[in-house]
Amino acid sequence: MNYEAVREVDPAVADALAGEVDRQRDTLAMIASENHVSEAVLEAQSSVLTNKYAEGYPGERYYGGCEYADEVEQLAIDRAKELWGAEYVNVQPHSGSQANMAVYTAVLDPGDRILSLDLTHGGHLSHGHPANFAGQVYDVENYEVDPEAGRLDFESIHERAERFDPDLIVSGFSAYPREVDWASFQAIAEAVDAYHMADIAHITGLVAVGVHDSPVGIADFVTGSTHKTIRSGRGGIIMADAEYGDDIDGAIIPGTQGGPLMHNIAGKAVGFEEALQPEFEEYARQTVDNAQALGDHLEKHGFSLVSGGTDTHLVLVDLRDSHPDVTGKEAEEALEAVGIVLNANTVPGETRSPFVASGIRAGTPALTTRGFDADACETVGHCIAEVVDNLGDEAVMAEMSDIVDELCADHPLYE
Ligand SMILES: *Cc1c(COP(=O)(O)O)cnc(C)c1O
């Protein structure tokens, strides 16, 4: 990974790329949505398919010369069907957000009503935040998680749905540490005669191998990102019953996109093939075990976890009980200084601005890809606790930075 061809043309970008490789090797990527794809996925994603226009779908393109594009896209579709058990799959969304946009476009008219989780409680911008197109085109109301329990409260969601009478209910989240009961969402959607879209962006990998229950076959639409826990080429995916296939196809192209990113679709195909191997199930289980080991260690150290733990690949720490004077932003910055890269996150019942926030979100997908086990994740938990307990203490920072260096050296990446 020395980017020789780039260097010849453009040393500035080559330096930045080389710097990024080193950064990924020498720090702990704990942003819960991130992962490290294999070199096979990287290679496919940087392939000559970036040159190809393939508007349309396999076998029915608007351009000639699509025989290899067809092969690659069909492989991605077939493997996705096998992984998630969906009748219909579209692998063309450029991202998870584009996948959501296409579903909205397929079944809603401007002004229709969407009910989704509040962003500060763990929702996503594309679920209808006022700053997002969805919040501007549709009439959006939010449900919340119970601020005490940190969990979804289906009675209150049902009440809100009865009052608001939405056309579409969104489930699936960015910062929710518990398994989601898809059937309860579906029952509410049916009771108010709304569509149900389950956005599994974060947990695609956990769902693919049955570590989490699947919404496929329950929700009308299942959307996701393909670069998070599923660890394939960067982009999005939509799954649905066969009856919705034509509407979704049309909502992607011509509805909201032009030519598909065929190189990314090649990366998806390769990543899905990897995920079909038995080792991937071990990976997904270990990712959750690691998040639980991390969470247990932090709790033992006095930190509060939203919902009291995790069933997922992430923990959400509410700093207000244990460190009332430390903001999420301060914790994030201090941790980055020792090589632990995660993000400040709002927590249920947030009392600070979302820019500083009162929590931190820490995920284990990328660490688990590097071979971290539960013991190594406890060590990471120790480092996080020491840094947050001793903000600004240079000696502690230096000590934790050494431990992070050792962890990185023991778990090499892109050798
Ligand atoms: C990450 C995420 C998305 C999509 O993100 P992209 O960056 O557009 O791929 C959508 N929904 C949720 C819940 C997410 O966490």
- Low-pLDDT ranges: none
Q: State which percent range the strand residues make up.
A: 5-15%
Helix content: 40-55%
For the record, the CATH class of the largest domain is: Alpha Beta
Q: Indicate the radius of gyration in whole angstroms.
A: 21 Å
- Give the termini distance in whole angstroms: 9 Å
Principal-axis shape equals globular
**What is the third-level CATH name, the topology of the largest domain?**
Aspartate Aminotransferase, domain 2
CATH architecture of the largest domain: 3-Layer(aba) Sandwich
With helices defined by DSSP (H or I, 4 residues minimum), what is the helix count? 17
Bound molecules: pyridoxal-5'-phosphate
The major beta sheet can be summarized as: 7 strands, mixed
Mean pLDDT: 97
Task: Describe the protein's architecture and organization.
The protein has 415 residues and is an alpha/beta fold. The chain folds into two domains: 4-30 and 279-410, Aspartate Aminotransferase, domain 1; 43-275, 3-Layer(aba) Sandwich (Aspartate Aminotransferase, domain 2), CATH 3.40.640. The chain is built from 17 helices and 15 strands. It has helices at 4-9, 11-26, 39-45, 67-84, 96-107, 133-137, 154-164, 182-191, 204-208, 245-256, 262-275, 278-300, 319-322, 328-337, 365-369, 374-389, 394-410; strands at residues 28-29, 56-57, 60-61, 88-90, 113-117, 139-143, 168-171, 195-199, 221-225, 236-240, 304-305, 314-318, 340-341, 343-345, 359-363. Strands 4-10-9-8-7-5-6 form a seven-stranded mixed sheet, sandwiched between helices. Helix 16 runs antiparallel to helix 17 (394-410). The chain is globular and about 65 Å long. It starts with a helix and ends in a 5-residue tail after the last helix. The structure holds pyridoxal-5'-phosphate (PLP). The site of pyridoxal-5'-phosphate (PLP) has 14 residues, from helix 5.
